[in-house]
Amino acid sequence: MRVWISGGGGFVGSNIVRAAVDGGHDVLTTAHTFVPPPDAAYAVSKVDMTNGADVRASIDSFDPDLVVHCAIMNDWDRMYADRQASWNAYVNATRHTAQAAIEGVDASYVLVSTDWVFDGTQGGADELTPPNPINLYGTLKLASEMVALEAGGAVARVSGVNGQHLARPSTPRAQDRGFGYFVASIVDSLSANEPFTVWEADDINMVATPSLALECGEIMLAIGEKHGTGVFHCCGADAVTRRDLAELTCDVFDLDADLLDFGPPDPASMLAAPVPYDTSLTTPRTDRILGRTATPVRTLIERFREQYAAQVGEPS
To answer: What pTM was estimated for this model as a whole?
Structure first.
């Protein structure tokens, strides 16, 4: 396939690019500031995702079989400070990419979304569970989902995404109020023999169904190959707490669990709005349509260890 991916310089986007390249596909990705290595097996183009003509010109020129829209405004403070800019970056960008893909070049279309479209009380949500976001990020993602679905595309929700940032591997990793980067944060700290406090509180994302970024990309490509429409959940098989995931990480990576501590979040990590507590997902529709079975969380962390060793080296 020819695969056009927005946001390939980001964490999830870089893994979608890798999955597509590894799958033998021709790839073009958009990026805001990311400069690819000279030997990159994919093309990179700077595209203003809020400019419909710019988006359509890029997609028309590449003529893809699949468009995966992953790019977002990844700045929580700016999102709240400039609501119009955030709406343009999420909802209008989705409209531009969906129209250019589906109406313009008759390509399959996948929007990358999030488990944060749920309010944190809907644990075990499946693909048909009605969303109920409690912050602006979740609201923007839900509005974008509606645009993608009404255009005839697919929505791929990711959950508790872990793995390596393949476009910026040296980017500092830090625990936040979600599950993203959580495993890498623990491995980086404990490998350096530094203690790590696993946050536990009622006002953070305490339960999720972790995923591996590279596998998320592989699932999205499978959705595109099957010309899938509707909602899909790109996550593992098991809902876990932060404590569960931390202890499993130590076990899989052979790290000293005595370096783990458990306590309240860093006050500086507070966000401007509520965070959903339990965003665990289930995958019945995804498994049925794609003919797959969700991967156990231990297997995902074992696969991440293989990636980590290949890119960073074995934890010491």
So the answer is: 0.96
Number of domains in the chain: 1
pLDDT value of position 315: 65
- Give dist(CA 227, CA 154) in Å, integer: 9
Please name the residue that has the structure tokens 């999955």: 19
Evaluate whether residue 230 is within a structural domain. yes
Please, is 294 exposed, middle or buried when counting C-beta atoms within 10 Å of its C-beta (0-12, 13-18, 19+)? buried
Cα distance between residue 274 and residue 35, in whole Å: 35
CATH number at residue 135: 3.40.50.720
Say whether 230 sits in a helix, a strand or coil: strand
Task: Dump pLDDT digits (tens) for 231-286.
Answer: 999 999 999 999 999 999 999 999 999 999 999 998 888 777 999 999 999 999 99
User: Is the CB of residue 191 less than 8 Å from the CB of residue 315?
Assistant: yes
Contact of 275 with 205, CB cutoff 8 Å: yes
Is 248 inside a domain boundary?
no
Please name the residue ranges forming H helices in 82-212. 83-87, 93-98, 136-150, 182-191
Q: Is residue 243 part of a domain?
A: no
**Residue 111 forms beta bridges with which residues?**
69, 155
Residue 50 forms part of a structural domain: yes
CA distance 174 to 103: 40
**In which region does residue 139 sit, left (phi positive, over 0), alpha (psi from -120 to 50) or beta (all else)?**
alpha
- Provide the domain limits for residue 53: 2-164+210-236
Strands (E), the chain: 2-6, 26-30, 43-45, 66-69, 108-114, 154-158, 161-162, 196-199, 207-208, 211-212, 230-234, 240-241, 260-263
What DSSP line would sit under 107-139, residue for residue?
Answer: -EEEEEEEGGGS-SS-TTB-TTSPP---SHHHH
CA dist 191 and 189 (Å) reads 6
* β-sheet bridge partners, residue 155: 111, 231
